[in-house]
Amino acid sequence: MNKQGCLICGKPLVYLEQEKPMECAICHQTFLSNACCEDGHFICDNCHEKRGIEEILAYCSTTDSKNPIEIAMALMDSPWLYMHGPEHHVLVGAALLTAYHNAGGSLDLPHALEEMAQRGQKVPGGICGFWGCCGAAVSCGIYLSILTQSTPLSEESWGLCNQTTSTALEAIGSFGGPRCCKRDSFTAIKTAVARTKELFGIEMELPQPIVCHYSAYNPQCLGKRCPYNRYHTMVKKG
Ligand SMILES: [Zn+2]
Ligand SMILES: [Zn+2]
């Protein structure tokens, strides 16, 4: 796992309050964006997440893990999933769909993963701060929508999908920012695992406790205020 900041030069990202046209340093297409590095490099969402999503689909198709955090962490260790980035909007739902399937849930997994990749890719980076709706939470809503084959015209499942996003979002928001795609993903997955058990009786596994080993790569880590910080396990062991 690398990696923070700019994919070109490693410098920290800066966020603008207003979008402006920027040219992607990889594909050279121009997009409106709020984020670039201190030296002005901009990478579009598509270029940022392309290889990561390929890794997610390949790994989820072969693992037999029932533990979505374990699946997510195995993928977070890949060089193509960065410390922060919109690839997490696919990762969260894909890890959940895979673990649900492996835990005995009825699901056409290859089809579900393909759909997850398509929908998750449409959830832009940075919306946690700019829209007040973290993409890891949206990914939980997509997960449930795929499971229940929900559409805008669905009745009961329509409600369940929106509530699934909101439960994840409430938990994510309770810690305050700055954003951390690892903390937010772990939190979203935890809430969706509990909800899945409650709604469908399918029990996925979770690490007890969840311990993050990515904090050194995140200059904005909340440290001891993050529930997944290694510090908490050290304190418990005395
Ligand atoms: Zn740069
Ligand atoms: Zn690009």
Account of the protein in words:
This protein is mostly helical. It has 2 domains: 1-43, no CATH class; 48-206, no CATH class. Helix content is 50%, strand content 8%. The chain contains 9 helices and 2 strands. The protein has helices at 45-62, 68-76, 88-102, 109-120, 127-130, 135-148, 156-174, 181-200, 230-237, and strands at residues 13-23, 30-37. A two-stranded antiparallel sheet has the order 1-2. A hairpin with a 6-residue loop joins strand 1 and strand 2. Helix 1 packs parallel to helix 3 (88-102). The mean pLDDT is 95. One zinc ion (ZN) binds next to helix 1.
SS field, number of helical segments = 9
Q: In percent, how helical is the residue content?
A: 40-55%
Order of helices and strands: EEHHHHHHHHH
Overall form = globular
Which band does the percent of strand residues land in?
A: 5-15%
Number of strands: 2
User: Would you identify the regions where 5 or more consecutive residues have pLDDT less than 50?
Assistant: none
Radius of gyration, whole Å:
17 Å
Task: Describe the strand arrangement of the main beta sheet, using strand numbers.
Answer: 1-2
Helix/strand class: mainly alpha
User: Major sheet: size, sense and barrel closure?
Assistant: 2 strands, antiparallel
